Amino acid sequence: MSQGAAGNPTVAMVEAAFQHHGLPWRYVNMEVARDDLAAAVKGAWAMGFRGFNLSMPHKVAVIPMLAGLAQSAALIGAVNCVVRRDGQFVGENTDGKGFLTSLEEVMETKGKSVVMFGAGGAARAVAVELALAGVRHITIVNRNAERGQELVDTLRHKAGVQAELVVWQGDYKVPAGTHAVINGTSIGLYEPEARLALDLDTLSPGMVVADVVFNPPRTRLLAEAEARGCTVVDGLGMLVNQGVIGVKHWTGFDPDAAVMRRALEQALALSPA
Ligand code: NDP
Fold it and tell me: Which residues are catalytic?
């Protein structure tokens, strides 16, 4: 359920999975006004929906309308995926888990040090999931100190990970010993030339550099990091993997991520149909 979103590439991606596996399911995008969310959730329950995704601002507003929350959704304070489970609607957050799946394809995260730019919804989801997966230390680099500190406090006191805030001023220098650098901000979204304030000379070839931005998937940050020999992870993988996890929650079926990525790329006009 989204507020004001007409087209949605996620629909093409999830329906491609249903079709590929011959599952008689439908995934439809519904525009729901803020004041109608409670009625929409009740309607979804009454009509037997197995679940649904939500976009902002519904990700936060839906929480009191649900019977319970999964651990990470509670820590993140947002629900992007609702699942009918044991006779009730439960809130999950699959954004951070989707990112983690992508990241763990290229590195082991347990015991590692991570730098994360941003402290908004996507950064919160990713940072909480990294903490729950056993990352050792997370540095949050954010322009807005209050928002950054709120995330650091959650990470330290509720997710039990070492965390610190750096208020972002000028080009950030990545400390030696950092294993992964993640852009969790919206810098680069629809703006291939947008520059993230980072001293590129502090990136080293052993590092992984990842981006939550999925359009364009090859952001300026990833191109520059790759040129310095870093391993890069794009935001499309996160979007695909959160879809894979959602389909599994709803249907119990593990869909083919490659089929879903192809459908998403076509819907975003990133590759030919
Ligand atoms: P929010 O508005 O919640 O947060 C935006 C964050 O970006 C804040 O930390 C903000 O900093 C920071 N920011 C924005 N512009 C600048 C700038 N010019 N300089 C420094 N910091 C900046 O957005 P979301 O977290 O919801 O989304 C962030 C990105 O994640 C979007 O591009 C979105 O498309 C992507 N995303 C990707 C997903 C995927 O599956 N790949 C899933 C969900 C989101 P401050 O706090 O200082 O304002």
Answer: 59
| pLDDT attached to residue 81 | 98
| Ligand 1 atom 34 nearest Cα | 213
pLDDT range class, residue 273, cuts 50, 70, 90: low
- Going along the chain from its start, the domains and CATH numbers come out as 9-94+237-267 (3.40.50.10860), 97-233 (3.40.50.720)
pLDDT digits (tens, 9 = 90+) for 86-118: 999 999 999 999 999 999 999 999 999 999 999
Nearest-CA residue for ligand 1 atom 28 is 186
Which residue has its alpha carbon closest to ligand 1 atom 4? 120
Q: Is 235 in the pocket of ligand 1 (CB under 6 A)?
A: yes
Strand partners, 81: 53, 92
239 lines ligand 1 (CB under 6 A): yes
Question: Is the Cβ atom of 186 under 6 angstroms away from ligand 1?
Answer: yes
pLDDT tens-place string over residues 57-74 = 999 999 999 999 999 999
